[in-house]
Amino acid sequence: MFPSDPDVLVIGAGCAGIAAARSLAARGRSCLVLEGGPRVGGRAFTETASLGLPFDHGASWLHQADENPLTPLARAMGVEMLDHDSLRDRRLFTDGRLATHDERRDYATAEDAFWAAIDAAASDGRPDRPAAEAAPRGGRWDATVAHWEGAQICAAELSRMSLRDFASTALDGPNMILREGVGGLVTRLAQGLPVRLDARVDRLRWGARGVVAEGAFGTVAARAAIVTVSTGVLAAGGIAFDPPLPATTRDAILALPLGLLTKVAFRADDPALPDLPPFASLRRAVAHAHDRPMSFVSRPFGDPVLVAFCGGARAWEMAGDPARADAEARAEAATIFGTQGAAALGRATVTRWAEDPLFRGAYSHAVPGAQTARAALAAPLGDGRLVFAGEACHPRFAATVAGAWLSGEAAAQHIA
């Protein structure tokens, strides 16, 4: 049964929406969560049908787990978690072979130098600028580090990102990986909440008298609303706001576009495949100016799965064409593992966040000069009648489930 006259409407049942609904319930406020799709979790989505094993299409780790609000919740629920950092066998492929011990050491030194340069530039008092302008250049590993930290981690190239936002949202370990997947955890955390599925909101009227959400489901009124849909959806006009949003909010939405990280996950049962240990990660060094390597993670929890990661512009170029993504991931595998090894890869599933109208991308970054956009988007409107929440709104844990969760809780507090 759904409340017929809720205090608060929560639009979107991803991490932010679930956190907001739980927080409202704890404060004795009634709410109704309107979810446009057929499931909860948003960009935290774990399924087993495609590969016969749990596969996280979106969020895969609890980053900076010691400070992550989902860590204690997972532990309280008895979720099996492992520290991926302590298990990860890090490998680097360069010049047609695996890197030597000395090369891996030099690469780690280049990573340290990268972050030292980024942090120094972000605090030098100069105006904000693209993160790429602060990144070291010319060293053997500099292009590889920049590609990894930008396109592969942040789902966008450093040239597209605010230096200050990039520095302030960089996270550390431990990075926990969950046996049931991050999506599995978030789904469990949504149990018992008043979530109405397949209830996409097309228009939201808001003002001094409250809010009214409209869609194919009809209309629902409440005292206030928390909107947790992605900035990709908001920028595309996925919800019409009446009256229109203030210019400051609209500008913040446009300044926080979604990047794209596509995963291609393969069944890896064939003994002809390379004998990579569980949880191994493998990066390929950038070979030339236009090279945009993928990376791989092998056999999480010992399962016969190999996952290729492709981020940034290359991922957008393949959006809407899963066959191309599959083929390019196999070609990457052939470069590293050889033709025979790549041929041994089994069936694949390709994530499709870009073309899904409920998301339109993976996670946000701030464009150069927009280092304050996250706070601007999170600022309550209409005396607290309308509040935005989601990973794009959090100034520290942006682009993660932790940021979405904390943002949802903060939005609920603004209203409650």
TrEMBL record:
Pathway: Plant hormone metabolism; auxin biosynthesis. InterPro entries: Amino_oxidase, FAD/NAD-bd_sf, Flavin_monoamine_oxidase. It catalyses: L-tryptophan + O2 = indole-3-acetamide + CO2 + H2O. Residues 16-415 form the Amine oxidase domain. Keywords: Auxin biosynthesis. Its EC number is 1.13.12.3. Gene3D superfamilies: FAD/NAD(P)-binding domain. SUPFAM superfamilies: FAD-linked reductases, C-terminal domain, FAD/NAD(P)-binding domain. The keyword Manganese does not apply. Belongs to the tryptophan 2-monooxygenase family. This is Tryptophan 2-monooxygenase. It comes from Roseomonas nitratireducens. The lineage of its organism: Bacteria, Pseudomonadati, Pseudomonadota, Alphaproteobacteria, Acetobacterales.
